[in-house]
Amino acid sequence: SEETLEAAGAAERLAAKISTQESVLKSLERGYTDFIVSGEEGTDEAHALADQIQNLSNELNENRDTLEAAEQAAAKLASGMDDAASEADQLRSTISEQELNLEKLKERYVSLALSESDTTDESQELAERIQNLSNELNENRDTLEAAEQAAARLASGMDDAASEADQLRSTISEQELNL
Fold first, then answer.
1. Residues 6+ away with beta carbon under 8 Å from 176
2. C-alpha angle 76/81/83, rounded to 5°?
3. What is the mean pLDDT of residues 13-23?
4. pLDDT digits (tens, 9 = 90+) for 88-105
5. Residue 61 pLDDT more than 70?
């Protein structure tokens, strides 16, 4: 389908962006090596180049992680496992159930605290159950949020790939002229 082709194209564009970033990073690192060899690593230009290297390296790592996550998701689908959408739906359903159960436990705790039949053991057990369920719920929310952010990064990364590559090539050309 057209959507499948677009998704495949997005992964290819990200892979191409990563390849470009790797090449640019190597060039920038060679330029920084020149500063070190010439004893000029303390100059403003060398510091600016070091910052560029660090920023590009961080972005490259994020892009690699995004592509790896996408490749793993694709491999998972290809191997016959549940598709990502149903897994996300299952996680959302689990989160909804946990939220409901947590509210019920909290209501029970409040009722118990207000009643005269409150026993320390019962309150303590209920408090532990609330804490455990809260921790589980937060972990599931974090997992879902991380997956959604990875998908968003992949989508936005594709949009900027071409212009960013041009900008990096321009920066390299300027750096090489200054060397």
1. 27, 31
2. 80
3. 91
4. 888 899 999 999 999 999
5. yes
